[in-house]
């Protein structure tokens, strides 16, 4: 079986994460429980930064926090001297509450509201990544009314179709994101902002997709943006000081996944940029990247407690756990695959072929089909690996299930960083029906 980061097996035969017994964690905090190996997050962040440092390239590594947002993870990102990618007013507010350095916050999103943009100006963040023509007009309006400066990047679609799931492919021409490089939209957007008294165009941004395992798409995207930068210098005498090549670096969910080391993706980008800047005598831009999943994905493990077991003769055995699609929608949404172990029986043979089913009232609520566990009995703790990205951030209260607690583990210590929801939390926004004496609505 494949373990991740600091995971190991102790003398009790229990899975440990960050030096802490997973069964002890489940007993202390209850289940479902999302556990993060913070040492692995730090290791990945350091690896990205070191690759740029070794190449002598000025860079920003921004944590793409839509993968997992919380005050505590933003605080760890701040400790690692990362920048931060936010995509909503809610994520920006969380960053503010974490006292994240405002100048290192980049605001993304394809439909930012006027109020969200005002909030970004209020907090004097480092950069807004502009996604559409309406946003250009809104930012102009705010900056001119306030006479306040703002740095921006233009998000562009380079026409690169990465090999990934349709739902998480974003760099092709048919995308809801950004200005198209090939049909002139990017040029039109640039001209609307060029020489504006309060808006500084730093350069371009692209993001070609998620869970990508090869470097060719990143190379093609970097080439497309560099060619446009060279063209803008020739046409407008404008030099882009920043080139943001996004994220999307794949991780290992199952044995079928073959991710590359973070340095391989970065080096491919570096090679293109260095080659083309030398070829065109172009000033070397500062490179920004936005890893999200590759920082937190395999740092997260969800612990569940098993309940009922149902065997369908000749078909399969279902083992139900106390969570499901409410805390991890990805298998139901786009067929995401995971691996699991019996966290309290790591030394026992994992020979029982089962399907791990959730407790939501949906036939499709299956976390993993056809995996192997030690002989399951009620009350076992099952660990599902690589749940650190896009699980809690996409969690819901479907069936009015409370969202799980979250714990950080590092160097044998553990800390609760998001408490488990209660039933009271679930109804706290509900308003009872106000009735007249007749019993009907007023």
TrEMBL record:
UniProt catalytic activity: meso-2,6-diaminopimelate + H(+) = L-lysine + CO2
Top-tier EC class: lyase
Residues annotated as binding pyridoxal 5'-phosphate: 248, 290-293, 390
Gene3D superfamilies reported in the protein's UniProt record: Alanine racemase, Lyase, Ornithine Decarboxylase, Chain A, domain 1
N6-(pyridoxal phosphate)lysine modified-residue sites: 66
InterPro entries per record: Ala_racemase/Decarboxylase_C (IPR009006), DAP_deCOOHase_LysA (IPR002986), De-COase2_N (IPR022644), Orn/DAP/Arg_de-COase (IPR000183), PLP-binding_barrel (IPR029066)
Domain annotation Orn/DAP/Arg decarboxylase 2 N-terminal: ranges: 41-296
Keyword rRNA processing set for record: no
Pfam family membership, one: Orn_Arg_deC_N
GO molecular function: diaminopimelate decarboxylase activity
Quaternary data: Homodimer.
Biological function: Specifically catalyzes the decarboxylation of meso-diaminopimelate (meso-DAP) to L-lysine.
Protein name: Diaminopimelate decarboxylase
């Amino acid at each position: 079986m494949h373990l991740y980061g600091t995971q190991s097996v102790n003398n009790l035969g229990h899975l440990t994460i960050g030096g802490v017994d997973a069964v002890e964690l489940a007993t202390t905090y209850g289940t479902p429980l999302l556990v993060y190996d913070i040492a692995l997050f730090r290791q990945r962040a350091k690896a990205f930064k070191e690759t740029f440092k070794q190449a002598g390239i000025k860079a920003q590594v921004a944590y793409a926090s839509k993968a997992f947002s919380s005050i505590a993870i933003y605080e760890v990102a701040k400790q690692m001297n990362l920048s931060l990618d936010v995509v909503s007013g809610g994520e920006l507010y969380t960053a503010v509450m974490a006292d994240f350095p405002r100048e290192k916050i980049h605001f993304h999103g394809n439909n930012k509201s006027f109020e969200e943009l005002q909030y970004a100006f209020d907090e004097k963040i480092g950069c807004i990544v502009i996604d559409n023509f309406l946003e250009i007009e809104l930012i102009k309006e705010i900056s001119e009314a306030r006479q306040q400066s703002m740095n921006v990047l233009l998000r562009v679609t380079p026409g690169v179709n990465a090999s990934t799931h349709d739902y998480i492919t974003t760099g092709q021409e048919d995308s809801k994101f950004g200005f198209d490089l090939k049909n002139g939209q990017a040029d039109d957007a640039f001209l609307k902002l060029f020489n504006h008294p309060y808006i500084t165009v730093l350069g371009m941004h692209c993001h070609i997709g998620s869970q990508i395992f090869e470097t060719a798409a990143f190379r093609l995207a970097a080439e497309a943006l560099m060619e446009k930068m060279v063209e803008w210098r020739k046409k407008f005498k404008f030099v882009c000081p920043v080139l943001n090549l996004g994220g999307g670096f794949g991780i290992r969910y199952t044995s079928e996944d073959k991710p590359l080391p973070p340095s391989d993706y970065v080096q491919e980008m570096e090679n293109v940029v260095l080659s083309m800047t030398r070829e065109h005598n172009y000033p070397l831009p500062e490179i920004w990247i936005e890893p999200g999943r590759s920082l937190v994905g395999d740092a997260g493990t969800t612990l569940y407690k098993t309940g009922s077991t149902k065997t369908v003769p000749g078909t399969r055995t279902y083992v139900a756990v106390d969570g499901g699609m409410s805390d991890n929608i990805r298998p139901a949404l786009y067929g995401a695959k995971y691996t699991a172990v019996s966290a309290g029986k790591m030394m026992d043979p994992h020979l029982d072929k089962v399907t791990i089913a959730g407790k939501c009232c949906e036939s499709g609520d299956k976390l993993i089909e056809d995996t192997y566990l030690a002989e399951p009995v009620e009350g076992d703790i099952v660990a599902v690996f690589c749940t650190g990205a896009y699980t809690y951030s996409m969690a819901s209260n479907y069936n009015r299930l409370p969202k799980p607690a979250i714990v950080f583990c590092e160097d044998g210590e553990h800390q609760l960083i998001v408490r488990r929801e209660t039933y009271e939390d679930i109804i706290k926004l509900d308003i009872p029906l106000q009735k007249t004496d007749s019993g009907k609505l007023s």
